[in-house]
Structures are given as C-alpha cells and as structure tokens.
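Why does residue order matter? Because the sequence determines the fold. Keep that principle in mind as you read this record.
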Amino acid sequence: ARVALIRGDNATAKEKSFALMGNSQFELADDYSTIWKRTSKEIIMEWEATVNDPLSYGFFLNGSVGRYEMPVDETLVAAFEPNDKRKDPSVGELSSPIGGFKYECKKYWITGNGDDSWPVARIAEAYLIYAEASGYPDGVATLNLLRNKRGLGDISPTSEEDFLDAILSERRVEFAFEGLRW
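Structure:
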C-alpha cells in the first residue's frame, strides 16, 4: 500500500490498505502509549530488538538516559492539538534542557533487554494511506476515524489542498520519530 501510494497508484493503495484495515489481526490501539509494547495489535511489522542486538533508538533520541543526538524540535511539540492522546507518549519535557532543547522522545527507551523494537509498519498508516488514496472529499471520513481514536474531533477540510495538509499534519504527529511523515 505504501509503495503504491508513493508511485501514485491510488487504486492499488486503496485496495491494499483496505485489506489491512479489515484484517482482524490488526487494530488501532485504544491507548496510544501501548503501541510500543510487543503485544500491540497496531504493529504490522517491526524490527525486533533482542538482548544481544538491541536497536536502542532511545539512545539517540532520549535526553534523560541517552546521548540525545537527535533533539526534539519545538515545532513538533506545537503540532499536537489539545487532547491529542499521542503527545504524552511521544514527547516529554526534559528536567534540564540540553543545548537549548527542552523536549525528548518518549516512544523509545534504552533498556538493553530487547524492549526497544522499531515499528516498520502500523495499521494507522493503512488508515492514512486509504484516506489519501481516496482523495478529497471521500477520504475525510477515514482520516476522522483515526483522529477520533486519538482523542480528536472531526475535521472538515474544504479543498483537496486542505485535505492533503491535514494528512501531512496527522502523519507528523502519528509517526513522530518513526520516519514515516512524508
């Protein structure tokens, strides 16, 4: 679905993402913070860390216990709407700012015991792919399904451009630190 969308094959993107959305093996998490646990039905595919081969993304993103080589930009923090259930599990304020930055990533942590796996694909992306491939105004309802699950109200874009801006905004906060914004 992702590749089809990137290639502009919206029909295939819709077909593949719809199939994922209808697969009972996967579902949007009721609690966004639980996605990063191995039992989440939100995860379609992940690079699994192990005790002997930890991924340790938190090491580069976390200012409390890591090296903090990739600090959190404040525009990301500002991009979360009020009541967005994704904000608290994604970013937190550092007790002591580092290099002028005051927020850190909370999605990944350094444990060394294999708990810091990296999501490659999540069912939330299927919803956004389906919405984008459906276009405006057809995709608005699917976009709103994801927003509602994340504690947000419906949006009513008035043009294709507004709709695509809304998709990009959702990608930014939904997939913060996951490399799936664009």
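The two ends are 14 Å apart (CA to CA).
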